[in-house]
Design a protein that fits this description.
Blueprint (H helix, E strand, L loop, with lengths): L3 E2 L10 H9 L9 E6 L7 E8 L5 E9 L13 E4 L2 E6 L4 E8 L2 E9 L9 E5 L2 E5 L3 E6 L5 E7 L5 E6 L3 E6 L3 E6 L11 E3 L9 E7 L2 E6 L6 E4 L5 E4 L11 E6 L4 E6 L4 E7 L4 E8 L2 E8 L5 E8 L5 E8 L5 E6 L11 E4 L1
Antiparallel strand pairs: 1-12, 2-3, 2-29, 3-4, 5-6, 6-7, 7-8, 9-10, 10-11, 11-12, 13-14, 14-15, 15-16, 17-18, 18-19, 19-20, 21-22, 22-23, 23-24, 25-26, 26-27, 27-28
């Protein structure tokens, strides 16, 4: 599919709700608290789950609210279902073919409307926010939107199969991981939107089994071919691949699946079967596995705070108590120390996680 979309001004808002929110963003400057957001992914009525992180005194991660998105969840095998940047966040509604926009002003969050996918595109799995634009990967398309207006921008890209795991965006290109065994390179225009072009990155046999989580360091892509011996890999803008051996023994004992770029030359990966956070060091061309930090359950997405001081991971507890979030402080060397863990809130498992400051 190569539907050409006319780009509009990124701050041309298309709903009265957004106009109201713009008038309220002056209150954002007084906000000082840190919040962690995730979603219930309920296939009937999706909700955004908001926790407040308190770090003074006895640290805590306390449930603040659950906001109905107005759509249906149901995504699986994905990452990046919830994102936040500055005053606005995005949450995928897999079962409704929409993305819900969340606005923050001060320490208050509100749903501010939904953004439909392009015609013919369905089941959003993952979003990425970058430089006033939103990128969405569904089961059959990748698309870009002006943000926070939500207006379609650039050219819709048809995906070769329905196995998308995550979409991420760098300086000159975006990438979609396909669980079927490949990574798509999607060039960006000078306006930082999708051009409609795509190429498949050729992956080596030791790093091509089930690509899942991904993140950019500038224009350098890191991703997790989770079921491979080399379960982490780097891809530069030219498409060259540098596989890196992960924790051993490899899959099915260990499998770094979900990824976030940490401070400096660090990367943190949610290791689902290993019930751990696996840490890697890299330069621009190679890297090495460092160590794993155990979790009391199976991680399914990870995120870093804008100030790069906190790591949050969602996991499904091994004791059967459902979805939880663990927040770790990151020290000057990149090591992690557990700061707070959420209690059970009646959600079987969370989907997507982001931090708003």
């Amino acid at each position: 599919m190569t539907n050409q979309i006319n780009r509009t001004g990124r701050y041309r808002f298309v709903t009265s709700g957004i106009l109201m929110i713009v008038s309220l963003t002056a209150f954002r400057a007084v906000a000082s608290d840190t919040y962690v957001l995730t979603s219930t992914n309920d296939p009937t009525s999706n909700k955004v789950v908001i926790f407040k992180l308190a770090t003074s005194g006895t640290p805590s991660l306390t449930l603040q609210s659950m906001l109905p998105t107005g759509g249906a969840g149901g995504a699986s095998g994905n990452a990046g279902a919830v994102q936040f940047a500055d005053d606005f966040g995005a949450v995928v509604n897999y079962g409704s073919n929409t993305v819900t926009r969340i606005a923050r002003f001060g320490d208050f969050f509100a749903v501010s409307g939904t953004v439909p996918l392009a015609k013919g595109c369905v089941q959003p799995q993952s979003v990425a926010l970058s430089e006033g634009d939103m990128f969405v990967a569904g089961t059959n398309c990748a698309e870009s939107h002006s943000w926070p207006s939500g207006a379609l921008a650039g050219t819709v890209v048809a995906l070769p199969d329905t196995s998308a795991g995550q979409i991420v965006v760098g300086k000159t290109w975006a990438a979609v991981t396909l669980k079927s065994g490949s990574v798509l390179r999607l060039p960006l225009s000078s306006g930082h939107v999708l051009t409609g072009l795509k190429t498949t990155v050729t992956l080596p046999a030791n790093a091509n089994n089930t690509p899942l989580g991904a993140a950019f360091w500038g224009d350098l892509l890191g991703f997790d071919p989770a079921h491979s011996v080399d379960s982490f890999a780097l891809v530069n803008a030219a498409g060259s691949v540098a596989p890196i051996e992960g924790p051993q023994p490899a899959y099915p004992t260990n499998a770094p699946c979900w990824l976030v770029k940490g401070p400096g030359n660090l990367w943190y990966a949610g290791n689902s079967p290993g019930e751990a956070i696996s840490i890697f060091f890299t330069d621009g061309a190679s890297g090495v596995f460092y160590k794993s930090i155990p979790l009391p359950g199976v991680p399914t997405d990870v995120t870093l705070s804008p100030d790069r001081k906190w790591l949050a991971v969602i996991y499904t507890a091994s004791d059967g108590s459902g979805g939880h979030i663990a927040v770790y402080a990151i020290d000057s060397f990149g090591d992690l120390s557990l700061t707070a863990t959420s209690g059970p809130v009646g959600v079987a498992s969370f989907n997507g996680v982001t931090i708003s400051q």
